[in-house]
Write a structure and sequence with these properties.
The protein is an alpha/beta fold. The protein has helices spanning 29-45, 62-73, 95-98, 124-129, 156-170, 187-200; strands at 17-20, 27-28, 54-56, 78-80, 90-94, 108-112, 122-123, 145-148, 153-155, 177-180, 203-205, 215-217, 224-225. This is AMP-binding enzyme.
Length: 232
């Protein structure tokens, strides 16, 4: 795998549960990949692309992971945390955090879960429903920006290489389930809690449901992993 979008490539769409949120039904790999493509299509329409990024809340929600992949498929960097830093084209989060947010004229606000009361705010689930369910044709290079923090910017290659180390060091396979218990604002959480399990088809647990976790990102040993140790 060379870029983050490879984790949601067409051949990875299978029917098994993959991402568990706080809803009653988990996302299958088929639905998660397809919705990531649709998210990219929605974001492109609103100007997202290389150097025109996406800001997302750090909540452990499937919609926010889809936003990460939607941006990655377009070669756009993501930054976690609200209010947003810089000049993102799209800001994604829950209604309570988004609707009262003041943004630049070229920035679109996107709310997931609850319907927004402001007609100028995009509703994530409603708007991706009608998008084209095909993988975007954009060409993304491994050295393009994928994640920005206050301290540094990580490329696709940086993040996938680190995820590969987690897979090797923890012997992750498709039979594993990885629980996310640390903030997604910590880059190591995204790498170890999302990218690493998806590399091997393991389950991602964003809530307290689903299978018993075999690795807990942000948890105590022996099954725990400190996200701050992932990227060095």
């Amino acid at each position: 795998m060379d870029v983050i979008g490879d984790l949601v490539a067409r051949e990875r769409r299978v029917k098994e549960p993959l991402v568990y949120g706080d809803g009653s039904q988990p996302y299958t790999a088929h639905k998660f990949c397809t919705d990531a493509w649709k998210t990219a299509s929605l974001f492109r329409y609103h100007g997202v692309g290389p150097e025109r990024g996406v800001a997302v809340a750090a909540d452990p929600a499937p919609q926010l992971l889809l936003s990460v992949f939607g941006a990655a498929l377009l070669g756009a960097p993501v930054r976690f945390g609200l209010p947003p830093e810089g000049d993102p084209r799209v800001v994604v989060g829950p209604a309570a955090a988004i609707e009262g947010l003041t943004v630049e004229p070229g920035t679109k606000r996107v709310v997931y879960a609850d319907e927004p009361s402001d007609p100028d705010v995009i509703h994530f689930e409603r708007d991706i429903w009608s998008e084209n369910p095909t993988m975007p044709p954009d060409t993304v290079a491994p050295d393009q920006q994928a994640l920005t923090t206050a301290d540094r910017t990580y490329t696709h290659e940086d993040l996938l290489t680190a995820a590969g180390r987690v897979v090797d060091e923890r012997d992750l396979t498709g039979d594993d389930a990885v629980a996310v218990r640390a903030s997604l604002a910590r880059p190591g959480t995204l790498v170890a809690g999302v990218f690493a399990p998806l590399q091997v088809g393991a389950s991602v647990l964003l809530a307290q449901n689903g299978p018993e976790p075999t690795l807990v990102v942000g948890g105590d040993e022996p099954a725990g992993l400190d996200p701050d140790a992932v990227l060095g």
